[in-house]
Amino acid sequence: MAQTRRQFLQQVGITGGAGVMYSAMGAIGLAGVAETPAYAAPTRMELNGRGKHVVILGAGIAGLTSAYELGKAGYKVTLLEARKRPGGRNWTVRGGTEEKDLHGNTQRAKFSSGQYMNAGPARIPQHHVTLDYCRELGVAIEPFVNQNADAYLYREGTTALSSKPIRHRTAKADVYGYVSELLAKATDQGALDSALTATDKDALITFLRSFGSIGTKEEGFKYTGTSGRRGYEVEPGAGLEGGTTAAPYGLSDVLASGVGNYFSFEFGWDQAMMMFQPVGGMDRIPYAFEQAIGREKIQYGAQVLGLRNTTEGVTVTYSTGSRPRELKADYAICTLPPHIAATIPSNLPTDIVGALQYARPTNAGKIGIEYSRRWWELDHRIYGGITNSNLDLVNMWYPSTGFHSDRGTMIGYYNTGANATAYGALTPAARLERALAQGAKIHGDVYTKDVKAAFSVDWAGTEHSRAAWVGWTSQTDGVYAKLLDATGNIYFAGDHLSHAIAWQHGAMVSARATVTALHTRVTSR
Amino acid sequence: MAQTRRQFLQQVGITGGAGVMYSAMGAIGLAGVAETPAYAAPTRMELNGRGKHVVILGAGIAGLTSAYELGKAGYKVTLLEARKRPGGRNWTVRGGTEEKDLHGNTQRAKFSSGQYMNAGPARIPQHHVTLDYCRELGVAIEPFVNQNADAYLYREGTTALSSKPIRHRTAKADVYGYVSELLAKATDQGALDSALTATDKDALITFLRSFGSIGTKEEGFKYTGTSGRRGYEVEPGAGLEGGTTAAPYGLSDVLASGVGNYFSFEFGWDQAMMMFQPVGGMDRIPYAFEQAIGREKIQYGAQVLGLRNTTEGVTVTYSTGSRPRELKADYAICTLPPHIAATIPSNLPTDIVGALQYARPTNAGKIGIEYSRRWWELDHRIYGGITNSNLDLVNMWYPSTGFHSDRGTMIGYYNTGANATAYGALTPAARLERALAQGAKIHGDVYTKDVKAAFSVDWAGTEHSRAAWVGWTSQTDGVYAKLLDATGNIYFAGDHLSHAIAWQHGAMVSARATVTALHTRVTSR
């Protein structure tokens, strides 16, 4: 029996990848959570010599995944990519990276050897197929620090705790302590007797005493902040030094501060630890795809000028700087951002162009700041993680790699929407200046010292992307759905055609769905 | 002003290390939490040729730290260590490691090259001076995964959710959801009006709606589990797949299950993420100390037979297997476990021996299990972290290194007290058998397959340690305190003489305190 079950698991694992394995384990009651729906990659056996030529527009993650999966099965693939590199928004900036943005700014990164910033995607949850491709393609991974009890929360404002960096651990201890005290009191006083049995009440109070580190019933369930969870004024140490705690912040001050409103970020399906990143930069993924697909299959610097369904297949017109060229293939997969795809001359029907135009571009911005001294470790005792604020820089990331080395690259801001656009409107030098002034409110003057290099990206102002990602007013009103089926011989793919928008996972599962649809059509003829 | 402050910080940073930097930053209002109390290492300038000879009993972390700090200042040091290696309880077991325990079991580890288990300390919080020594000694570090939303909680019993592996993320979503719903209702209904102002209530409800992902007031603040935080039956994916969530577990079932009672572990001062480990095994720290101190200063295989204060200094009798030898020095630092030190013939006063005997040994046990397949990643989508249970194995650790490689070593149990002693009483083969049977309850049959090697440690049954650590009935009743001052020319040091017992940090800060006391005495003559 045991052996049979194992054989069964191995069997589905082999043909279907981790996704199928999960579903199967869920079905037989082993796994608590079903993961990615099953994906069965096209095989050479199924294709059986019916190889078709597929032209793929865009060598971002969706295009690369499509080309890789089709190529494995024996399809002829040609990738047309406007940039001089693979990956699209998966972009790692290193020393020497040069970019002219749509505002007219040209930046040339001066990062030291080994230093980089992931300008686009930068973290991978455990359950994303992105990790499966890392495994399959041999891209080494390491933890990405998405949560750190010693990073700060900072809220500018007029409350008692405003404009004061507060460690996550301190905020959590105080919020959880007071929440526990309040709920224990209300429960004990019978306020929830209509919702809770006596057994429930006992179990709840047991939980709250542990969760909030609050006193006994006799002590009024009082939160006094002495557990050490919020940190120490003097750490527990040698001899008689048991540690000195500070009194907790006051209940009203803690509530008014809003520090608790960030906590749920860490519980998110896509954000809860553990998280990962490729060793050496996120672009290790597209470069590994490039190698697996074959460099010669990718035409870089190819700007798409036209896309037409024909009776035989598709015709793509593109330019590599000189005169336009024409490429004929059996099928096309268009992975360009929808708001850009909508502007390309084509014979696509009006409703399909309308569906592409239905996407709402969203902006995001980031700055990488290389320091020649890891002051966040040395002075603030922070090893990776995120400081979150209500300043316009919003999030600051401490590096998840190079611990204890002599330099490191922070993300000085990672923001979206109006904040991103406000920074994007500045010159790169002014963006850095503003980021340093704002960040110094949290970290002190050390934040403005030992700056070695910086590079900033404004995704709305970045050629070939013109957005960080897109949103849809609705994904169920029938407009978005028009892009999920082939229009003649033209298919679409991209994270925008998934429910994991702005994640590489979304691009990958969309590409897989498109590859499956195309392959099913080819093999069922 | 800015420059002045920075100069001040640099100045104290240079002379006092990170600890002083923290205190100073706290004092001028920069850092939210003061860290380790200041430590000023002895210097050659201060010693000024008054070099004394210090014999150190035990080359565990306290002994190594003492020797290292004294050696830097010009003291002559001799370390006597009963084992054939440095580190004491800091012990990394690799292929070829052989150990005969006090029960008469001899194990020889058959781990593959690159595989290991840290049998003693295995994780380092950001604020421990252990990391400072890693930096100073050039020991590379990497994250230790102490928290993983996709690891399991498992409670054997008779409740509705008993004997069912539940992902941490699922347990958290449900517990936080219901807690938020209950507290929001009680607050809204005025049950807490004596404790909360109207402004407090608004802020609290805003927080609870985010924290618990609960409905609006109109929706009765109801928790429905649809946020995705608890996981999906079908993940959000391509096209129209928005993800399918399962209904949350029932309120009474969640409370009865006790799954929430583990959460506070992750908020602990010493356990909150981020945590770290040396690359390649915890014993990289003692071996780096050995190299920095000088291998020739350490006499391995030296069993201490006697310790005497003399008018000139100290005399230590020890054996290296042949006849006893005698070593005379100016001072001794005894870092042996107190319950072992108490058994060594000496002329220590009765009250000092009584203070050593006052320590209560605590047991802990661990088993390392090497698998030739990383089923936790492949089948369960767990990349490092801890599964916690009420089984006698208590904690299981997935490896924090070697992600995506072809093999890995789990900690199959990490338990303390009676559970550890129960496993310790078994033969190593029977320990493994029991660990596999228990672990399979959580992970299924996969847990019993692909086992390549195993090694278990029972600290109470380990020669030269005879405990995992010790506790004290009191650290303030005057008995413990007797060991903090020199008895004649004999000093004591160790994690047991700190408020960070069972941590290397405790051994290090104790050693620093002892070194400081000894150095002050020498230099004030």
UniProtKB/TrEMBL annotation, chains A, B:
PROSITE patterns assigned to the protein according to its UniProt record, in alphabetical order: TAT (PS51318)
Residues covered by region (Disordered): 90-109
Biological process terms in GO annotation: amino acid catabolic process
One Pfam match: Amino_oxidase
Top-level taxon: Bacteria
Protein name: Monoamine oxidase
Entry keywords, A to Z: Membrane, Transmembrane, Transmembrane helix
Domain Amine oxidase: 61-517
Transmembrane intervals: 12-34
Alphabetized GO MF terms: L-amino-acid oxidase activity
Transmembrane helix listed as a keyword: yes
Presence of keyword Transmembrane: yes
